[in-house]
Design goal:
The complex is a heterodimer of chains A (343) and B (297). Chain A is an all-alpha fold and 343 residues long. Helix content of chain A is 66%, strand content 3%. The longest helix of chain A has 31 residues. The two termini of chain A are 17 Å apart. With 297 residues, chain B is α+β, with helices and mostly antiparallel strands. In chain B, 20% of the residues lie in helices and 14% in strands. Chain B has 9 helices and 10 strands. Chain B is globular. Classes of the chains: A mainly alpha (343), B alpha+beta (297). At the A-B interface, helix 3, strand 1, helix 7, strand 2 and helix 8 of A face strand 2, strand 3, helix 4, helix 5 and strand 6 of B.
């Protein structure tokens, strides 16, 4: 399948935005409590974190809106995009659109309540709605692809968890980096989650690629029904130039370089996990400004700068891994219609 | 509404005879001509007479060489089954129609089959249910699958959902276009009754295309399908195509067979291979050309 950059930007950016939104919502809900393994650090109460959370939710909203904007450039007639909200009864793409808009409404309410300093039930409810709708939207995005029988690579059981794990990993990496930059300390629980999700994402892609490599596509004889006679091979195509089908479904570039690109994804995810381990083991990476709500950990300025830079690099690496992964997800997927041409 | 209508009793569709199709592309040309001016049109092309023409065709005619599977020599028993077409053998028999051929050599003689491909107007088409706008729909009264060009946003998900390649994006209209079964022709009472058929059926010089109600077991097309062992394309995918293909009749040398039950097995599938055929790197967009060079280094 042709990997359209519009769709890749959409699914990577909105996935990261929804992951980040869910992190902020969970932080608002969990409130003050001990976070393992270091009980000397606690998550500050909601009224202390509110301005920070509002800023993070705004970043998440910006990512989601940028992603949705990118997705409309994939349309032949973007001015008619509003029509896509109508067929939620049958179409996962339509459900995804409805859910995306609902999540934007919930997140906007969430950020508005945080902005006016709300810490009560309304804020909590907005946080719950934001997190749930973020998950639902990522689910719908994945289901768009898993509901296409002609593309077996997208039908497998690892596609759905793959979308969730990359949304969670990119969202958490952004969350850890923004906590470090905006309030001076990366919460250990978030760093630990990032470690787990990055490794899980790497593991699931490893399995996914092994499964994709083993997929047997129906050949020309099967797709034409000529297999009742024997093997069929094309000796004359219907047209001399490329057409929509051969351009859209016959994309072959990725398969030539799949090994290098797959290795790059896995290496980036392992690097993200390694940075998460460093953040956990080296508290000096997150020394805290005097007015920070987090308990202070002493460390020298150089180490602190390295820590901040590493966490930003981890966030960028996770986005890069998600981008390359999503590019391969499209580019490596084979569509059955090509059997009519390639035999 | 992209939810499917309840199953229709009328199932209008095409029956395509792979025995008599000569691969002349007249169906494709007649279709293009009719539909360019019809309700689904225009089927505008980019650069139609130039170096890289691009545009939608509802019909695409492939040509295949079919090697008979080793050890499956059939006796040619379907030669005499009562179909109403004359001259089919003479028109497509790539083996030359020799009357007495040594079975040893015959088994290695490939058969030429021309294969017109168009929308099959499936009974459970995923292209309709994935549509987010309601532009794609299946008609409740005759089962024809159509696209409303005024509603289509060009998201292309329906084309991804079709394993048969029936849908293409118009490069000028930027919406999805597909076979309409000449819905603006088959019901047109201003036309003589004999012309109320899809343009491709009217144009076929060997009468390899037939149009009718496949939901009615008594219709001429249903009976033709029953006589000749007509089959649906890849029924295991679950789309329940309405169109039927009539298999090539067995050759006088025994090549070919009647209607075996289609099946998916190891012999008829392909696996990704390392040695992909070469392709033209200069046709890639600049960023991929750069990536290609960077990765090949």
């Amino acid at each position: 399948m042709r990997p359209a950059f519009s769709v890749i930007f959409f699914s990577v950016l909105s996935g990261a935005g929804y992951g980040l939104l869910a992190c902020a919502a969970l932080a608002a809900l969990i409130g003050p409590q001990c976070v393992p393994p270091d009980c000397s650090r606690t998550v500050p109460p909601l009224d202390v974190q509110a301005p920070f959370l509002a800023a993070v939710v705004l970043v998440a909203l910006a990512l989601v809106i940028a992603g949705l904007g990118a997705s409309t450039t994939h349309l032949g007639r973007p001015e008619r995009a509003w029509r896509a909200f109508s067929q939620w009864r049958s179409s996962w793409l339509s459900r995804e659109g409805v859910s995306a808009v609902a999540s934007l409404v919930a997140a906007t309410a969430f950020v508005a309540l945080l902005w006016i300093g709300g810490t009560g039930l309304a804020t909590q409810l907005a946080a719950v709605a934001s997190a749930l709708l973020a998950a639902v939207t990522v689910f719908c995005t994945a289901r768009i692809y898993t509901s296409l029988p002609p593309i077996p690579a997208w039908r497998g059981p690892l596609v759905l968890p793959g979308f969730f794990l990359f949304a969670a990993t990119t969202g958490l990496a952004l969350w850890v980096a923004s906590t470090r930059i905006l309030i001076g300390s990366a919460p250990p629980f978030a760093s630990m989650s990032l470690l787990v999700f990055a490794l899980a994402a790497a593991a699931i892609k490893w399995r996914y690629w092994r499964e994709v490599d083993a997929i047997a596509m129906p050949g020309t004889a099967r797709m034409t029904g000529l297999d009742q006679i024997g093997e069929a091979r094309s000796f004359e195509a219907p047209h001399t130039e490329a057409n929509y089908l051969t351009r859209e479904m016959g994309f072959r570039f990725a398969r030539r370089h799949a090994r290098v690109l797959r290795a790059a994804v896995l290496a980036a995810l392992v690097a993200v996990a390694a940075i998460a381990v460093l953040a956990l083991l080296q508290p000096g990476f997150s020394p805290v400004a005097p007015d920070s709500p987090f308990p202070a950990t002493r460390g020298d300025d150089a180490l602190a700068a390295v820590g901040a830079a590493l966490l930003v690099i981890a966030a960028l690496l996770s986005l890069m891994a998600a981008g390359v992964e999503r590019w391969l997800f499209f580019a490596e997927a084979r569509h059955m219609v090509m059997a009519y041409y390639e035999g | 509404m992209t939810s499917l209508p309840p199953p229709t009793s009328r199932k209008l569709g095409l029956v395509i005879d792979l025995d008599t199709c000569v691969g002349c592309h007249a169906c494709a040309v007649a279709c293009k001509q009719w539909n360019d001016g019809g309700a689904a049109g225009p089927l505008a092309d980019i650069d139609p007479q130039g170096a890289e023409p691009d545009g939608v065709w509802f019909n695409r005619v492939h040509s295949y060489t079919v090697d008979r599977a080793a050890g499956s020599l059939h006796s040619g028993s379907t030669c005499s089954s009562g179909a109403s077409h004359d001259g089919g053998h003479a028109s497509i028999n790539a083996t030359g129609g020799a009357a007495a051929v040594n079975p040893q050599t015959a088994s290695r003689t490939p058969m030429t089959v021309h294969f017109p491909r168009s929308c099959l107007h499936c009974e459970t088409p995923a292209c309709v249910t994935v549509c987010p706008t309601g532009a794609s729909y299946k008609r409740a009264d005759d089962g024809i699958v159509l696209v409303d060009a005024e509603k289509c946003i060009g998201c292309q998900l329906c084309a991804w959902a079709c394993p048969y390649g029936a849908r293409e994006v118009g490069p000028v209209l930027r919406t999805m276009q597909k076979c309409t079964l000449c819905v603006d022709r088959i019901y047109d009472e201003r036309l003589p009754v004999r012309e109320r058929e899809p343009a491709c059926v009217q144009a076929c010089p060997t009468r390899a295309r037939h149009f009718g109600d496949l939901g009615d077991p008594a219709s001429a097309v249903s009976q033709l399908v029953a006589e000749r062992g007509g089959y649906a394309l890849a029924p295991e995918l679950g789309y329940a195509p309405v169109n039927r293909y009539l298999p090539p009749r067995a050759r006088r040398d025994g090549t070919g067979s009647g209607a075996a039950v289609p099946r998916l097995d190891a012999a008829s599938t392909t696996r990704p291979t390392q040695d992909e055929p070469p392709y033209d790197i200069s046709s890639l967009p600049p960023i991929l050309r750069w990536l290609e060079r960077a990765l090949t280094r």
